[in-house]
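In response to a reviewer's request, we include the raw inputs and outputs for one of the modeled complexes. The two entities were modeled together in a single run.
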Amino acid sequence: MAQFSVYRPWVVEPRSAFDELRRDLDAVFGRFGSQAPSVRRGVYPAANLYETTDAYVLTAELPGVSPDQIQISLEGSTVTLHGERKIDYAADMSAHRLERQSGTFRRAFDLPAAVDPDKVEAIHKNGVLELRLPKTPEMQPRQIAVQTG
Amino acid sequence: MSSEVTRAPELQVREKQQIAEEGTRPGAVFRPDVDILEHGDEYLIYADLPGVDEQRVRINLDKRVLSLDAELAADVDPAWSALHTEYHLGGFHREFRLSDEIDAARVSASMRDGVLELRLPKNEAHQSRKIEVRAA
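The model returned the following structure tokens for the whole complex.
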């Protein structure tokens, strides 16, 4: 039987039994609709994944997180972001409203395919992290010239 | 008011709050998360504005009403196709009514890593003054 590779972009660590079940169900029944079913609310940071012809682009909203507080690791096709958002106000300030959160985060993402680890670029600009993950040469589209016989 | 604040050790994503009716501007507009603090004779406002640079923030002060508008510095490259979307892109808008009048001439704003810091000094008339009580 053919093995279908299921695209499950957002893997969260640690993976729960429910996630495993859902993954298995996805593998059996496939996916319906355009929205990936493995979207989990509440996992920080919120991220988007894009595809270009030669790369995947992962963006994450991390306002107030300085670049040195973000650790990025890549293992196979799994990208992990972890770090901390720190908010320190002087003790003599009185707070009228506190909506911004601080704390630690850790999140893993499964990419649809392996990427070239040596060519990954990370840009943190205006509080948005942008990871450019070039596809391995085998995964990139190729032009094949048709020759006349 | 207590300045001691305990915060969650692990961050949770909160969905961006979209503003339903926001005039004629195209695109989505969200309500940014803010912290408002008071320190001596000034208010401090911190607003999370991911994707916004200092060129695209507009702050308007009309007596005690402060309005904040921000637009994204860059849109998504049209050549990128979205595989998965958890957050939507758009501008930000929020208004604040402050309990003291602000000295508009001395308002300062700066941005760092997508967070706006606004320093709003109170008008002289509203500043707290220390009055020494002398023994007769």
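As requested, we also summarize the result in words. Residues 26-75+88-126 of chain B form a domain with the Immunoglobulin-like fold (CATH 2.60.40.790). Residues 1-5 of chain B have pLDDT under 50 and may be disordered.
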